[in-house]
Amino acid sequence: MILPIVAYGAPVLRKVAAPIDAEYPGLAKLLEDMWETMYSSNGVGLAAPQVNRDVRIFVVDSLQIFENMDEEEKLEFPTDKGIKKAFINAEIISTEGEEWAYNEGCLSIPKIREDVMRPETVTISYCDENFVASTETFTGITARVIQHEYDHIEGKLFIDYLKPLRKKLLQSKLNDISKGKIKVDYKMSFAK
Q1: Catalytic site residue from 104, 114, 120, 149
Q2: Which pLDDT does position 74 carry in this prediction?
Q3: What is the pTM of this model?
């Protein structure tokens, strides 16, 4: 089932999400719905707070980014081939490498894209959909998508990385989004 994406301004987007256990009710269905919602809205990642659940879950499919790159672009990310994974109860262990700019967007903040600086490598511990624990290191665009989605479960948004003046210039657009004064081609819910 395609779930509505929560728009900027909703309190759930600013909460630190709670960990869950393997007995979390409806976990398999929630993950299935999150994948379906992400794909139907042309996203490459989606966190549970974006579908109004304040739990530490996010999904990432960076494979589709690489499928749409030409061979020359792929050479810029020699150690990153993309992933498709669910992350439950994720905790970032470390970030490393030079910070680099990339134009990010967010399904909860439609029609706004900005360059954000993030480290090139992230090491993260998490459980998969079967609650098998792992610690892995990711680089490049995949590391970026993971960091972006991880921010969601920490109550952070990509616009928090912008310089104050830039954020101020975007404020009227952000206000419009929070009031539902925006047209998108996916289901959204707006703060009342």
Answers
A1: 149
A2: 86
A3: 0.96
